[in-house]
Write a structure and sequence with these properties.
- The complex is a heterodimer of chains A (about 120) and B (about 110).
- Chain A is mostly beta strands and about 120 residues long.
- Chain A is about 0% helix and about 50% strand.
- Chain A has no helices and eleven strands.
- In chain A, strands 2, 4, 5, 6, 9, 10 and 11 form a seven-stranded mixed β-sheet that branches. A four-stranded antiparallel β-sheet of chain A has the order 1-3-8-7, with no helix packed on it.
- Chain A is globular, with a radius of gyration of 13 Å.
- Chain A starts with a strand and ends with a strand.
- Chain B is mainly beta and about 110 residues long.
- Helix content of chain B is about 0%, strand content about 55%.
- In chain B, strands 2, 4, 5, 9, 10 and 11 form a six-stranded mixed β-sheet that branches. A five-stranded antiparallel β-sheet of chain B has the order 1-3-8-7-6, with no helix packed on it.
- In chain B, a hairpin with a 4-residue loop joins β7 and β8.
- Chain B is globular and about 40 Å long.
- Chain B starts with a strand and ends with a strand.
- The chains are: A mainly beta (about 120), B mainly beta (about 110).
Chain lengths: ~120, ~110
């Protein structure tokens, strides 16, 4: 089946530093990837849609200059949290839709737990 | 606005049947999904409904009524490993992000022996 990986699975960083999270589709190509954020006991909230070869589309209220998204290839999207603050501590999950075959399903990565101290 | 409602918590015993309801109000509709999520892990796909009716898949079934904005997930022959959070999500075709999913807050199911 389709597999999406994320790296790192968890990271602790100091306030003011930047953190990069990678999302890879391992056995399929994905023109579109999605980045979600989930706080404890909360729903997954869509942050942005990442499109290969074009700028990401951000949801209302998500700062594009703070959460930098790069979709460098059909198998890789990265999310960089710049100047991280404790309130950015959360569970970040990416998902990907296969390009080759029209599929209704999104495949989720295992998530990255970010803790900002 | 966009709104997806589901109960916060449910409890059941092994071997029982449980139904988790979901109601939604979205500006568009292009399919409803159910996902299972264990604590600290990513969601895993359970079912997809785009037309009215019941979709059965082993111990899990999902029902959709588009006119009522209503769905349910039915879990039969419950097992301890079914203890997890169950997320209802709608693909909103009019969402700016295209085919992104809008998630409910999830229903935490606890299965006891």
């Amino acid at each position: 089946g389709a597999v999406v990986s994320q790296h790192p699975s968890w990271v602790i960083c100091k306030s003011g530093t930047s953190v990069k999270i990678e999302c890879r589709s391992l056995d399929f190509q994905a023109t579109t990837m999605f980045w979600y954020r989930q706080f404890p006991k909360q729903s997954l909230m869509l942050m942005a849609t990442s499109n290969e070869g074009s700028k990401a589309t951000y949801e209302q209220g998500v700062e594009k200059d703070k959460f930098l998204i790069n979709h460098a290839s059909l198998t890789l999207s990265t999310l960089t949290v710049t100047s991280a603050h404790p309130e950015d501590s959360s569970f970040y999950i990416c998902s990907a839709e296969p390009t080759a075959v029209h599929s209704y399903e999104q495949y989720f990565g295992p998530g990255t737990r970010l803790t900002v101290t | 606005g966009q709104n997806i409602d589901q109960p916060t918590e449910m409890t059941a015993t092994e071997g029982a049947i449980v139904q988790i309801n979901c109601t939604y109000q979205t500006s568009g509709f292009n399919g409803l999904f159910w996902y299972q999520q264990h604590a600290g892990e990513a969601p895993t796909f359970l079912s997809y409904n785009v037309l009215d009716g019941l979709e059965e898949k082993g111990r899990f079934s999902s029902f959709l009524s588009r006119s009522k904005g209503y769905s349910y997930l039915l879990l039969k022959e419950l097992q301890m490993k079914d203890s997890a959070s169950y997320l209802c999500a709608v693909r909103d075709s009019f969402n700016q992000a295209g085919t992104a999913l809008i998630f409910g807050k999830g229903t935490t199911l606890s299965v006891s022996s």
